[in-house]
Design goal:
9 strands; two-stranded antiparallel sheet; globular; alpha+beta; 5-stranded mixed β-barrel; about 180 residues
Length: about 180
């Protein structure tokens, strides 16, 4: 339970309060909420070019340097009444949205009940990971397991396969999500 609370506190601090500004936008601010951006943004065509990636057993092998191709912009969030950093995904990352991928990294368990269906995968071991201040949010991924899995120990290096999703609106989830994930032995 304590680890889950620590994870959620770190997640909120890390994803939401980089700037710690709590003022409200005024008429001259250009910041928008994610909903405003979606309504104003022109449709962008992203083409998936499989020649840019490596594959194994029909799954795209996703690497952390590719995921590092991201920028952030500060926008006001109505839900928390504060300023937050929101991701801006580069085209090479956008093209991966909803693709079946395999990714390797270090496990950071977030549940101590043994019924683990939510994990965090990090490009780095826990001592160097995003939550400890040595990396950015592009170096972690939320793993949503399809079924209850074995219990993973902290810093277990392993791989998962699933559907890769981008998140630029839900402040309670990480920017990268692997849905319907399965442990790759």
């Amino acid at each position: 339970m304590a680890l889950r609370i620590v994870f959620h506190c770190c997640l909120i601090l890390a994803l939401g309060n980089w700037s710690c500004r709590q003022d409200t936008p005024n008429q001259t601010d250009t910041a928008t909420t994610p909903t405003d951006t979606a309504e104003v943004a022109s449709p962008e065509v992203i083409v998936f070019d499989s020649s840019l990636y490596n594959f194994k057993n029909g799954e795209l092998l996703l690497d952390w340097p590719t995921l590092a191709q991201i920028d952030f912009e500060e926008r006001f969030n109505e839900e928390i009444q504060g300023w937050m950093m929101y991701p801006i995904f580069k085209p090479i990352v956008k093209a991966l949205h909803k693709q079946r991928v395999r990714v390797r990294g270090f496990v950071i368990p977030v549940d101590e009940t043994g019924d683990e269906q939510l994990l965090v995968l990090s490009a780095y071991p826990y001592s160097n990971c995003f939550f400890c201040g040595a990396a950015g949010p592009e170096s972690v991924m939320e793993i949503r397991l399809k079924a209850t899995s074995k219990r993973f120990r902290m810093d277990t290096e392993t791989a998962f396969a699933g559907t890769f999703l981008l998140n630029d609106t839900d402040i309670n989830s990480l920017n990268y999500i692997l849905a319907d994930a399965e442990w790759v032995k």
